[in-house]
Design brief:
Number of helices: 4
Strand content: 15-25%
Strand order of the largest sheet: 1-4-3-2-5-6
Distance between the termini: 25 Å
Shape: globular
Oligomer: single chain
Length: 157
């Protein structure tokens, strides 16, 4: 059985304000990242840009989740706003809420993430089909998104 994806706990959005529940009927690709994470900057964020452009005509929503667990004083909302102004992303970015209960923010813990970058692939019914930590080849991500669309009954929609 495929688990239902937990809702995100976001303290601030840059761009549209998507709630996971509002994206039902669409495949959803989420990138959990930190703006000071080398793998995120060099690999994951550029890959998300390419994927968002490639699937622009398909019922896929791309979302960034800035989930900071390292050097939070250097990666706060002001710094993220400047980062996004300097290099805008073609999808909304939310800041994962820090609640003080742990060094890891709320959504990061809900999904039991192990680090950044982490991809979350959620189907049109809101189910978490795949969670992948670390790099994923472009062709593999494209295939995963196509499989997600097919599982959602959205392929060719």
């Amino acid at each position: 059985m495929i688990p239902v994806a937990p809702e995100w706990d976001v303290e601030r959005w840059f761009g549209a304000v998507p709630r996971l529940a509002d994206l039902r009927g669409r495949a959803v690709v989420v990138l959990a990242f930190q703006m000071l994470c080398p793998g995120c900057l060099d690999y994951a964020l550029p890959q998300m840009r390419r994927a968002a452009a490639l699937f622009a005509d398909d019922p896929v929503s791309f979302v960034g989740l800035h989930t900071v667990f390292e050097r939070p004083a250097e990666q706060g909302p002001t710094q993220l706003a400047a980062f996004l102004r300097a290099d805008p992303l073609p999808f909304p970015v939310g800041i994962d809420r820090a609640d003080g209960a742990s060094r890891a923010p709320v959504t990061f813990r809900r999904y039991a993430m192990e680090g950044t970058p982490t991809l979350l692939l959620i189907d049109g019914l809101g189910r978490l089909h795949r969670q992948h930590a670390g790099p994923l080849e472009d062709m593999a991500l494209g295939a995963e998104i196509a499989l997600l669309l097919a599982a959602s009954g959205l392929l060719g929609a």
